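User: Sequence for Heat shock protein 60 below. Tokens please.
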Amino acid sequence: MRRKSQVLMLWLKYWSWSCSYDFRSIDNLLLLILLHGRRIEQLEKCARRES
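Assistant: Structure tokens for Heat shock protein 60:
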């Protein structure tokens, strides 16, 4: 899972350079993606415990 997020991060940074996006907005987007991923992992763990 961590590898996937690293690849996504690299892709987003490359994309931001090629499109000359503001890095701060990209970093905010990455934070949202990472937090969302963590939340999903926690929900999966809870679901496994309950079942």
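The radius of gyration is 14 Å.
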